[in-house]
Write a structure and sequence with these properties.
This protein is mainly α. Helix content is 37%, strand content 3%. It contains four helices and two strands, in the order H-E-E-H-H-H. It has a two-stranded parallel ribbon. The longest helix is centred in the C-terminal third of the chain and has 17 residues.
Length: 132
């Protein structure tokens, strides 16, 4: 997702229940070294695949987070809010939360249609407030 425009730039999906990080590892993305990636804590280990990764720190019973670490994690999480909002906009269509009842050959085109609808809504949302 592009954080400047709010539009979905690319989408990946897999068959069945597949974790995001497993999909990332198997997809062999060709990412530029200048690209900065901000991910959630489910992507532990991504720093071995890409150099510029913003990953929240995890706590444990033996090593709780300090106040500064918690504040850093909050700042990192606030950067991911637009991405999570875009995920929500796509999940409204219930394609990933419920059983897909269409033809499996149409799954990809259905997702592409949903992302096109979300992008259209996002790119024209400023028109709601204009007076004609």
């Amino acid at each position: 997702m592009c954080l400047l425009t709010g539009l979905i730039r690319a989408i990946r999906f897999g068959k069945g229940k597949l974790h995001d990080f497993e999909m990332f590892k198997s997809a062999n993305f060709d990412l530029s070294d200048e690209l900065e990636i901000s991910v959630d804590s489910g992507f532990q280990g991504i720093q071995h695949f890409h150099s510029k990764v913003e990953l929240p720190q995890k706590s444990s019973k033996k090593n709780p987070l300090t106040k500064e670490q918690k504040e850093k994690n909050t700042k990192k999480a606030s950067k991911r809010v637009p991405v999570e909002h875009t995920n929500r906009k796509c999940k409204i269509f219930k394609i990933c939360g419920c059983r897909f009842r269409g033809k499996h050959s149409n799954y990809e085109s259905t997702w592409l249609l949903i992302t096109a609808i979300v992008n259209l809504k996002e790119s024209t949302r400023h028109l709601r407030f204009s007076t004609v």
